[in-house]
Amino acid sequence: MKFQAAISLLSLIAPSLGDQTNNSHPLDGSHRDNRSLINLKPQRTSTRELVSLDGLWNFALAPDGNNTSTWTDPLPKGLECPVPASYNDIFVDRKIHDHVGWVLYQRDVIVPKGWSQERYLVRAEAATHKGRIYVNDRLLVEHVGGYTPFEADITDLVKAGEKFRLTIAVDNELTFQTIPPGQITVGEATGKKTQTYFHDFYNYAGLARSVWLYSVPRQHIQDVTIVTDVQNTAGLINYDVKVSNNTTGEISISVVDEDGTIVANATGAQGTVSIDSVNLWQPGAAYLYQFEVSIVESGETLDTYSIATGVRTVEIRGTQFLINGNPFYFTGFGAHEDTTVRGKGHDQAYMVHDFQLRQWMGANSFRTSHYPYAEEVMDFADRNGIVVIDETAAVGLNIGLTSGTVGEAPSTFSPERINNETREVHAQAIRELVHRDKNHASVVFWSIANEPASNEEGSREYFEPLAKLTRELDPSRPVAFVNVGAADYEKDLISDLFDITCINRYFGWYSQTGDLEEAEAALEAELQGWEQKFNRPIIMTEYGADTVAGLHSVFGLPWSEEFQVDMLDMYHRVFDRTPAMAGEHVWNFADFQTSVGVRRVDGNKKGVFTRDRKPKAAAHSLRKRWTEMGASK
């Protein structure tokens, strides 16, 4: 299956995104409609300025009740919270750690005096899981969804050179109509709100990614869509540029190679540029061109924006996943944005170190389990030739899996739980994911959900329109979801809607616990069933065992480092006997925090590294396998 890259398809992509690129709702009728904004990641160019608002912000829990009129008052002194970071583990205060509801971040900001002829905006890269931006006392925008950016144009409210008070409110509540879903209960005796959720990682909250103040010219580039292809030795870049409504200048395109040489030019908002003797973006050997877009009028450059572009193709042929026409076998991990103290706060040092550890291991890929990662991570993957499976935050659409229900689990898809309203929120999450990450060469397919109840009645009605939407938004990449063990090849109701079989399996851990002989037989039967049902690639997107670092057993008993090695080795034997296997992602890269409860003691211990990135025995075992696999290619 060759995924389409013709320029005619770009007319499908942009209009599908245009009306609801960002789930941001401006709340002042006199203000510009932020839903019409198509958010290119801010960058500093000869025509644009960028000011980081990262650092210490004043912080407070929002007052209880529905009265929000005091939220924009100056916050009391005493608490300052770093941005980016989750707030939960920052303060030595159980009330803040366990808080359910809104919190307030606040700081003063000065718009640079030199921006008087520009438009300027405040942008939050993420607010988990709902965010509001206030300028002085005015609420400008509200955004739903914890892992994609939103912004507000403040040009008409604050003059260049003036100071304003910026307040960002963040709500961590999860309900059946959020992605991911959850449920809030209120204690009968205390009235205390408690958040439960159906995913196995901690519900860290706050401003975990950067906040920016940035400018664009009055005539500016709003969005760029790039789809690449290869014909013989030539690389093709199909493009579609969207500009502000008042733009009168001409669109000029230049493609610059890594030596700084212009290798192609074009004009116009849509078209195709060809690069002779193209250097392809390859797994493990990234090559990036700069795709430079400019608005030019009377010889003057009014705006310019550059996108790092890797030319590559993606194809599924039978049971093979092909990149640039060559079979690709995924090796790597699922992981979480998770570190001590910071929670999900993006940290450049951890990012670089984690990539170094992946490369040391011989891993060539990862899945953004179970939400879009910080865009800096995607840029870094582009530059380092690491392949990415890009996933929405739709984890937990399976009420019986982790709800702790005794007896028969309630149905997941129902008017009272996961319903049509949830699906609309899910659709918006897909729109925002595809819009944000569509130009990353590292992203080779979309995963629109992790472990939903795809064996339950109502799952097909829920997922069929979402699979269709994803293909309409981006016809150039395959679409997948990640299947849960209870929905095996006989019980699953939706896998035929997708292009790749991605499955999570824990034979030997959650079933056949400690009995690897029985587990091996069960795993092989499962993979054979999927192989016979669909003639397409199979990727094991999760497999692994909880392991306490330093715990050893001469018998290789569960929880020991020896058992983790033995269990992974068993899986690999089966993978190597399965022709349709196209990849293996161990769960997990590193130990991570989860909700407090009797099921987890200080988090999930399935990492092959500890939470502070010390290797367990399995890390060395995997390194040997993956580096030998890489050397044999």
TrEMBL record:
<keyword id="KW-0378">Hydrolase</keyword>
<dbReference type="InterPro" id="IPR006103">
    <property type="entry name" value="Glyco_hydro_2_cat"/>
</dbReference>
<dbReference type="InterPro" id="IPR006104">
    <property type="entry name" value="Glyco_hydro_2_N"/>
</dbReference>
<dbReference type="GO" id="GO:0005975">
    <property type="term" value="P:carbohydrate metabolic process"/>
</dbReference>
<protein>
    <recommendedName>
        <fullName>Beta-glucuronidase</fullName>
        <ecNumber>3.2.1.31</ecNumber>
    </recommendedName>
</protein>
<keyword id="KW-0326">Glycosidase</keyword>
<dbReference type="InterPro" id="IPR036156">
    <property type="entry name" value="Beta-gal/glucu_dom_sf"/>
</dbReference>
<feature type="domain" description="Glycoside hydrolase family 2 immunoglobulin-like beta-sandwich">
    <location>
        <begin position="220"/>
        <end position="312"/>
    </location>
</feature>
<dbReference type="InterPro" id="IPR023230">
    <property type="entry name" value="Glyco_hydro_2_CS"/>
</dbReference>
<feature type="signal peptide">
    <location>
        <begin position="1"/>
        <end position="18"/>
    </location>
</feature>
<dbReference type="GO" id="GO:0030246">
    <property type="term" value="F:carbohydrate binding"/>
</dbReference>
<dbReference type="Pfam" id="PF02837">
    <property type="entry name" value="Glyco_hydro_2_N"/>
</dbReference>
<dbReference type="GO" id="GO:0019391">
    <property type="term" value="P:glucuronoside catabolic process"/>
</dbReference>
<dbReference type="GO" id="GO:0004566">
    <property type="term" value="F:beta-glucuronidase activity"/>
</dbReference>
<dbReference type="Pfam" id="PF02836">
    <property type="entry name" value="Glyco_hydro_2_C"/>
</dbReference>
<feature type="domain" description="Glycoside hydrolase family 2 catalytic">
    <location>
        <begin position="314"/>
        <end position="629"/>
    </location>
</feature>
<keyword id="KW-0732">Signal</keyword>
<dbReference type="InterPro" id="IPR013783">
    <property type="entry name" value="Ig-like_fold"/>
</dbReference>
<comment type="similarity">
    <text>Belongs to the glycosyl hydrolase 2 family.</text>
</comment>
<dbReference type="InterPro" id="IPR006102">
    <property type="entry name" value="Ig-like_GH2"/>
</dbReference>
<dbReference type="InterPro" id="IPR017853">
    <property type="entry name" value="GH"/>
</dbReference>
<dbReference type="Pfam" id="PF00703">
    <property type="entry name" value="Glyco_hydro_2"/>
</dbReference>
<dbReference type="InterPro" id="IPR006101">
    <property type="entry name" value="Glyco_hydro_2"/>
</dbReference>
<feature type="domain" description="Glycosyl hydrolases family 2 sugar binding">
    <location>
        <begin position="52"/>
        <end position="217"/>
    </location>
</feature>
<dbReference type="InterPro" id="IPR008979">
    <property type="entry name" value="Galactose-bd-like_sf"/>
</dbReference>
<dbReference type="InterPro" id="IPR023232">
    <property type="entry name" value="Glyco_hydro_2_AS"/>
</dbReference>
